[in-house]
Amino acid sequence: MNISCYTRAGLCALICWMLYGCTSMQQPVNYDAVDVSETAAGYEERLIRLDGERLHGAAVQTAELDALYEELAAASAAAENQEMQAHLAALQGRAALLDGNTPRARRLYETAASLAPDEVQTLILGLRLEDDAAVRLSRIEEMLPSAGDNAAFLLLEQAVANYQLKAYSVSAAQFDAAFLVLGGRYRSAYGSVRDTAWNLRLSSSAASGDTDASEYLTAAALDADGVLLITQAETSLLEFITGGKLLSAAELRREAAEQKLLPAAAIAEPLPVTRGICAQYIWNLYARRRRIDTDYAALYAEMRITESPIPDVALDSPIFTAAAGCIENELMSLPDGIHFMPDGTVSGAEFLYWIRQADR
Questions:
Q1: Is the dihedral of CA 72, 76, 80, 86 positive or negative?
Q2: Residue 199 and residue 162: Cα distance in Å, rounded?
Q3: H-state helical runs in the chain
Q4: Cα–Cα distances in Å, from 164 out to 26, 89, 156, 239, 347?
Q5: Terminal CA-to-CA distance of the chain, rounded, Å?
Q6: Where does residue 250 rank: exposed (0-12), middle (13-18), buried (19+ CB within 10 A)?
């Protein structure tokens, strides 16, 4: 039987959890229902959301981090038992680490470890203080056999480390296995990172890091250079302008402008491209490759349909044909099942998936 790399990684992750993460297969731990104070759970939820955003490449707002740090400090000082003090101090240390204050994070780790060295957030902070993801993975493997109910959290830390090491197939599988146990708030916080890992698992550029496109693949928002470089590195869709040569970003922009593949404004300014712009670009290349000349707006007019099937893209919108074509041919999708969200930004991993669909 030929089992895919992702399936093998998923099985390994689940087996790891079954071996180390639960003592009863009938009663997996639901960490959304752990008996901690509602306030402490709220702090943790805010922290992991910020952590997920940072891992996904988004800039974390310093003011939000500062506010969380101060609230955690006050809550830790008021906590009635050592384990809760350690939990809150470790979360405070993770906030400091996200804010780039490693010395402060290290001091808070020492405080948390002196109070409750085996408390899960203390363990996570200790791991995160290690910059080398490979070293972190080795430490986690040593910790797993005695992890008990903390195993799912360590599995998520394995997923994070493998993501940082660009082992995307394994990372996606480990995120999925961790989410099964940790519940919805962790899926919400790290779901975008997991999806990026899944989309990048087949990318040679992402794994090697040896092309100009690689830095854009994990970007939270792409500009025109990212769109063009990823297309060149990961597909054959631009060979009609590159002739099989590897062009620089400046050369690609010049050719894209001449062929009108992207709006002039998107090429001229290093601004994030929108979903609408991406739809026009992808549909242009796909239709050119497949010699499709369908004008969806005209087609709807012929059928006397006056209401757009895409609520936020009108029939007379310049992107309607592109949006409709991308949806109908399963190149892109409606994020919420209803709206196209044409003004939304596009991550590198999202774009990689779409452009590979167009090249299939």
A1: positive
A2: 15
A3: 5-20, 38-55, 62-78, 82-98, 102-115, 120-128, 133-143, 151-164, 168-182, 184-200, 204-208, 214-217, 224-234, 239-242, 249-259, 264-268, 275-290, 296-302, 320-328, 348-359
A4: 33, 25, 13, 31, 17
A5: 25
A6: exposed
Largest CA distance in the chain: 74
Helices (H), ranges, 249-316:
249-259, 264-268, 275-290, 296-302
Q: The pTM is what?
A: 0.74
3-state secondary structure of 131: coil
Q: Tens digit of pLDDT per residue, the chain (360 long)?
A: 344 444 555 545 554 544 444 433 333 434 343 344 677 888 999 999 999 999 988 777 788 889 999 999 998 888 888 999 999 999 999 999 999 999 999 999 999 999 999 999 999 999 999 999 999 999 999 999 888 889 999 999 999 999 999 899 999 999 999 999 998 899 999 999 999 999 888 786 766 666 788 889 888 899 999 999 999 999 999 999 999 898 999 999 999 999 999 888 888 888 899 999 999 999 999 999 999 998 998 888 888 888 899 999 999 999 999 999 999 999 999 999 999 999 999 999 999 999 999 998
Residue owning tokens 């989309």: 199
What is the Cα 249 distance to its own chain's centre? 25
Strand-pair partners of 274: 345
d(CA 351, CA 227): 7
Q: What is the distance between the alpha carbons of residues 269 and 240, in angstroms, rounded to a whole number?
A: 24
- C-alpha distances (whole Å) from 158 to each of 16, 237, 321 are 11, 36, 43
